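Researcher: Sequence recovery benchmark, item below. Answer with residues only.
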């Protein structure tokens, strides 16, 4: 059902779609803007997203392969879309739509807000410079594919190696000759009648050897220079083209950084270069400024609209490395968008960052075992293992307060949302001993998780290499090129029509390993219930470290601890 009225000017520059009075009378807008990096979509953004999804299913204005059917032979390109609920100058509420990057090969479509800067406009400096760079790339490729040039380079390399070897062998022979002359001089007594003649002959041999070495080197020099003369002009041209490409690309990138200028509520404009200069990157990462939410806010501020709420959802096939589910809502990306949105949302009332909120008072830390050397605690979901930048409340800080004259040393950690067993050492020696067991993988660990769908298999093993997403920490990626080995054994222990409870045995200890192996389509393709990074947020993350077994550093006996998950 359509809950909005299209603005009659939406075909032109004004791209807002207004909600009907019936909707806005029933659903009031939020008092504060959405915290972009962790949120539950506001009801108005859900309505807007549903209408945008219906449009994507029925539109005929563009052709883009989202990979939603098996008929697509090309590589599918799923995409993030965003909606922004706004109030216009008269207070009437509607929404704007945007997509990340390009759609169907272009930056601008009538249904969606335009890019902050359209580099694909005809005769733009970007396209003109790209044409020059493309010509450079074509010439470089021509050189790289020149078989005769490669053969000459190979011949030169072989001859250079042969020259080095031949000269080296000759020098070795000369050294032997020198040693022989030295022995002959030692035997040549001064009182020998032919002493002078022998010395002269030995000196002549020495001069002759040096002459032969000079001749050999000169012969190789002439031969190699002749071959190089046919190669070096092409090599010099190749290096010159590479340097020109690098300089042009750097200049073009700097120009683009200045063209991407972002507004905020106060009308203050800031370029990408200035926004990212103080960050750890030092410069904008690739694709910065092309995400949906910055586009939406830019258009809203430029049009005099008041932003009220945002939401982003994925549309299409999941990428191979990331976990993206069709139609599911996701936060804005941290690496590319966080610095930009920090500027754009400056001065606006925004929802609190839930990551900075302390754990609930009811989240008690239970000590299930303690002796003179260590403790084992049952960490509640929502409590940090160690203090954060803005929040001190954690397993460490609570134990620091309760233990007298003892520095608690956490041997390992659990994600804030994960509950369960943690072992804490009381001395550096105990810490080192147990930590070594973790490093040597002699510690037994078992987790319990509730998966978001019923799976058909009953048990198995998942091996998907993982690495950090550099632009969206703490999210992880599956990468068969750069990822670290990650293996999880699993077994179903209970199943309903919509959920599955499983045991996980992590055979390696990578960041978010169980969460990724559960959610990824090459794993179980079933995110853990409450997984706000790789699935859908709930009242908690249903992942619990249920069993922990290791060798006690003092008794040398194996100890085991087990705590039920409570879900």
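Model:
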């Amino acid at each position: 059902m359509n809950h909005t009225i299209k603005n009659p000017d939406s075909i032109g520059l004004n791209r807002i779609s207004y909600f009907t009075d019936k909707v806005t009378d029933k659903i009031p807008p939020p008092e504060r803007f959405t915290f972009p990096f962790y949120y539950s979509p506001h009801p108005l953004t859900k309505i807007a997203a549903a209408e945008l999804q219906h449009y994507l299913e029925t539109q005929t204005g563009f052709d883009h392969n989202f990979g939603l059917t098996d008929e697509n032979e090309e590589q599918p390109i799923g995409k993030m879309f965003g909606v922004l609920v706004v109030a216009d100058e008269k207070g009437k509420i509607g929404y704007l739509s945007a997509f990340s990057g390009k759609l169907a090969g272009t930056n601008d479509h009538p249904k969606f807000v335009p890019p902050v800067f359209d580099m694909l406009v005809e005769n733009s400096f970007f396209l003109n410079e790209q044409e020059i760079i493309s010509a450079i790339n074509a010439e470089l490729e021509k050189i790289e594919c020149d078989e005769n040039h490669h053969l000459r380079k190979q011949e030169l390399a072989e001859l250079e190696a042969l020259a080095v070897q031949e000269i080296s062998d000759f020098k070795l022979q000369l050294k032997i000759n020198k040693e022989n002359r030295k022995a002959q001089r030692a035997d040549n007594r001064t009182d020998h009648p032919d002493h002078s003649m022998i010395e002269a002959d030995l000196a002549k041999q020495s001069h002759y050897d040096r002459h032969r070495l000079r001749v050999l080197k000169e012969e190789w020099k002439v031969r190699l220079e002749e071959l190089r003369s046919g190669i070096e002009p092409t090599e010099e041209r190749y290096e010159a083209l590479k340097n020109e490409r690098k300089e042009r690309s750097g200049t073009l990138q700097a120009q683009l950084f200045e063209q991407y200028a972002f507004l905020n509520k106060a009308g203050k404009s800031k370029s990408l270069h200035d926004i990212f200069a103080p960050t750890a990157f030092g410069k904008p990462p690739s694709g910065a400024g092309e995400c949906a939410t910055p586009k939406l806010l830019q258009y809203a501020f430029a049009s005099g609209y008041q932003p009220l709420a945002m939401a982003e959802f994925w549309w299409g096939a999941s990428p191979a490395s990331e976990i993206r589910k069709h139609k599911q809502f996701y936060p804005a990306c941290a690496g590319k968008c966080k610095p930009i949105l920090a500027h754009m949302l400056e001065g606006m009332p925004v929802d609190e960052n839930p990551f900075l909120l302390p754990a609930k008072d009811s989240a008690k830390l239970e000590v299930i075992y303690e002796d003179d050397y260590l403790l084992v605690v049952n960490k509640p979901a929502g409590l940090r293992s160690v203090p954060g930048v803005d929040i001190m409340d954690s397993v460490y800080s609570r134990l620091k307060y309760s233990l007298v004259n003892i520095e608690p040393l956490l041997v390992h950690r659990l994600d804030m949302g994960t509950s369960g067993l943690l072992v804490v050492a009381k001395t550096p020696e105990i810490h080192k001993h147990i930590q070594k067991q973790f490093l040597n993988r002699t510690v037994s660990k078992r987790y319990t998780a509730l998966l978001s769908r019923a799976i058909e298999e009953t048990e198995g093993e998942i091996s998907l290499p993982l690495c950090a997403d550099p632009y969206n920490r703490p999210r992880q990626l599956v990468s068969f090129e750069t990822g670290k080995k990650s293996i999880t054994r699993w077994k179903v222990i209970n199943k309903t029509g919509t959920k599955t409870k499983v045991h996980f045995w992590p055979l390696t200890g990578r960041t978010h390993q169980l969460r990724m192996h559960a959610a990824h389509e090459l794993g179980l393709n079933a995110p853990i219930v409450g997984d706000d990074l790789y699935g859908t947020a709930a009242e908690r993350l249903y992942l619990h470290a249920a069993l922990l077994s290791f060798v006690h550093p003092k008794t040398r006996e194996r100890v085991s601890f087990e705590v039920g998950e409570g879900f």
